[in-house]
Amino acid sequence: MHTTDPVGWCSSRNSLIRKLLTSFIGSSSGAVKICRKAAIVSFILATGSSQLFASESSLAETQVDWSKAPPVSPPPRAGIFVKPPMGPGYFSLLDLIDGNEREKPQVDPLPPSALTTTPAFDFDFRYLEQPGHEKDFFDPVKRIHLGSDWLLSFGGSFWYRYMHETDSRLNAAGINNDYHLLRTRLHADLWYQDQFRLFAEMLDARALGLDLPALAIDKNHTDMLNLFADVKLGQFMDGLAYLRVGRQELLYGSQRLISTLDWANTRRTFQGVKTFWQTPAFNLDAFWVRPMVTEPNQFDNWDKDRNFVGLWGTYKAIPGQVLDLYYLSLVDNRNVSPANITQGNVLQGDSILHTIGARWVGDYERILYELEGMYQFGRRSHLDISAFSIASGVGYQLPLPMNPQFWLRYDFASGDKNHRDGRSNTFNQLFPFGHYYFGYIDQIGRQNIHDFNAQFTLHPQPWVTFLGQYHRFYLANKRDYLYNAAGAGTIRDITGQSGSHVGDEIDFTINFHLSRHQDVLLGYSKLFTGEFLKSTRPGVSPDLFYAQYNFRF
């Protein structure tokens, strides 16, 4: 534990905070300025403005315990979550080869999965400060102490994925798509005590051998995924509060509305300002950001036409249960073409959209459960918005070998029955991890849909995870579009005569955790077309096979 005089640092900190706030508020006008002010006002209320501009003479002596610092935000529990195996066994293939049977999983901030939406800046390596921890080859590049006050870490990852898509993207020509995805990420993380942080992470995402044009999520050549500074605002009601400014990934709750989208080769990131306050019982975040526009051969820039503001609270005082309450606002000034307005395809611009929602998720003994409701209102293309979505599910962890678990679920997102009636009733899924919830072929999004679904998981060995899903999809309104995982309207029958049954999808994945740094993921998905797709895309029978290798440190 290190003790230091805080007066000089606090003076510099408060000056820095004032400059950051002034630059973010004072350099804009109109709707953008309102959004920025709303975010700033929200976090001042959340963290206590008296601490933000406190007199340096009133601050007490600061102590740093590196076993508890710097703070880390644990990943939220997703929907259809799986409880990992906890009993004795081999928790990686390397454990099996070495004959290293463990009583419980090793302490490891890296998840035993080829996919993880958790940002690299939230991996928790504080266990390295504990004596007797298990040694690892990459320990020397983690938590490097530079004197008593500074801490430096490095990390990164690489993945390769092969994709084979039959009737890719439901294209009418029946073109298949075989291609390869490669992604490299490297980061550096510098802390001064628990007061100030600089985090930088580069990403290089490449796609090779495509038979169809690359999607926006496939390629981004050598850009910054994260580049931000954190400043400690102070402590309020047993919780630390921080201000974060710069490019940053966002991830909240079930990830139905805000996610890092790890399935994408490029992931998803934003740029702006955020504050977060965390106590043992409650978290509160407020942010103003703009989504980044991926430009594969240039440095990315933020989308000046979209401003995203949010206030997200999480109550976690009851063990095993979490309650999320949130408000989100998206101002989208992108132009919607006259042709799209005529066709009712108006979700991708010219809107002021507000979302309020709540989520309750947890487990009791062996019962698993989740319920989330979201309501949207505002204006888009001169239409009044009234839309909603519901996600519900109940599961059970069977007391049998191989840790079997199953879920039964129902998901709904409203659609629009008449785009000429002055109202717009189609739900907007915002920035979701749609791939996780609506089938891995990615042709269904949380917009104008009913999804009756089930999931079953097994761990034949603690290092092997098998997952199977079944989905039965119906359009919520048969005159509205079928929307894909990106939220884009793809197919529509304005007469409604093609029916509402989109189809039935099965998804299978198996993940092999080779070592704490390596995973292999295999997957197969098949969409059996229903009356709607048979009428609008006759002869199409999409499926997907993929194989992925992931290394991270």
Task: Describe the protein.
The two termini are 27 Å apart. Helices cover 12% and strands 45% of the residues. The protein has helices at 7-26, 30-47, 49-52, 93-98, 338-343, 434-437, 531-536; strands spanning 2-4, 62-64, 144-146, 150-166, 177-192, 196-208, 220-236, 239-248, 270-278, 282-293, 301-302, 306-315, 321-332, 351-364, 367-380, 383-397, 405-413, 423-424, 449-461, 464-475, 482-483, 489-491, 501-515, 518-529, 543-552. The longest helix is centred in the N-terminal third of the chain and has 20 residues, at 7-26. Helix 1 (7-26) runs antiparallel to helix 2. The protein has one domain (2-552): Beta Barrel (Porin). It has an 18-stranded antiparallel β-barrel. It is mainly beta and 553 residues long. It is globular and about 70 Å long. Strand 23 and strand 24 form a beta hairpin.
Keywords, please?
553 residues, mainly beta, Porin, 18-stranded antiparallel β-barrel, two-stranded antiparallel sheet, 7 helices, disordered N terminus
Describe the structure concisely.
Helices cover 12% and strands 45% of the residues.
Number of DSSP strand runs: 25
Secondary structure class reads mainly beta
Instruction: Choose one word for the global shape.
Output: globular
What is the arithmetic mean of pLDDT?
90
Largest sheet: 18 strands, antiparallel, barrel
Radius of gyration, in angstroms, nearest whole number: 24 Å
User: Into which percentage range does the β-strand content fall?
Assistant: 35-45%
CATH topology description: Porin
End-to-end distance, in Å? 27 Å
Compute the number of helices: 7
Helical amount among residues, as a percent range? Answer: 10-25%
Please mark out the parts with pLDDT under 50 across 5 or more consecutive residues, or reply none: 1-7, 25-61
